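Aminotransferase: structure, please.
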Amino acid sequence: MITPADRLQSVQEYYFSRKLKEVQALVAQGHPVINMGIGSPDLPPHPSVQQALVEALSLPKAHEYQSYQGIPELRAGMRRFYETQFNLAPDVPVDFLPLMGSKEGILHIAMAFLNPGDQVLLPNPGYPTYASVTELVQAEAVYYDLQPEQDWLPNFAALEALDLSKVKMIVIGYPHMPTGAPGSLELLQQWVDFARKHQLLLVNDNPYSFVLHHNPISIFNCEGAVEVAIELNSLSKTFNMAGWRVGMAVGKPEFLDAVLKVKSNMDSGMFLGIQKGAVAALALGSDWFNQQYKVYSKRRELIWQLADLLGCSYDRKGVGLFVWAKLPEGIDAETLIDEWLYHYHVFITPGIIFGSNGNGYIRFSLCVTEEKIKEVIQRFRK
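Here you go.
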């Protein structure tokens, strides 16, 4: 009898992969389901990005295998983007490795640096893929608590009290997903100092810096970060290019060389047209970011109205692509989510999928038009 590998016994199919099958089945039955659960931007990329892709189709080498490290133009564009948007000093000794989305970078980094039995500090709540990847490489997740009483920020005294003898890597991410905690340069410096003190690899997952956030920051704005950190970033949310699958790993050459050893055995380079489009996106300026801010601000105002209608509480200082909201006490989010899905035909994400500290919370996506959000409000008012 042929059975799956043992490593899959501790890993489930990604929640949204499973739940969207359920949503799609309802749609196939004719139900007008509105999906407020997924952070997949519904807005288009800038016209210049689309045009760059189209023009690349006729280039002589457009349809050949591409470099595992991306074209030089793309790597240079990523560097300029960091220097322009994150105030990265030109002399900071980091390189840029294009990825097919930053999500693959989480797995590549884990495979490059973790051995079976190594421990990884992961946020609770946090992106579920961190834990899944940790399990897939047969490492062990050790969770650090993020609590609303501390504005979803870590307790470094509690971290120092942990047995860190088997810990090799820490995963962080600010602006934080799902809570929307913006973080700060001071917080990132604390993480860098902690990682340096204990000689741990610090992975900063940073895809939300430009969504409803006026102060984009990078881990490499911190003193000493180059010694211990890799940063993941993505064009998915910033430039409405989720389906294009373009991300990057940023770090010192030795770290990226290790990641490349994994990556180069898993793909054969990114399609040239996508790379050309990414170069155009990375060159966009303040007009683009201001326009995105206006759209998402209006949507967030409507989501807040919906949250009020549902009796939820939330933090208006939260940033990013979601609104993180607490349900009234004593309500089971997963049960309620299913009731809403089948009665109102609205899908919202239960907070528990992000960890035990997400219990009692729900997450609204801003990737929904104003018209659809208004329609959801009307459905719940009936």
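Notes: Residues 286-309 form the longest helix (24 residues).
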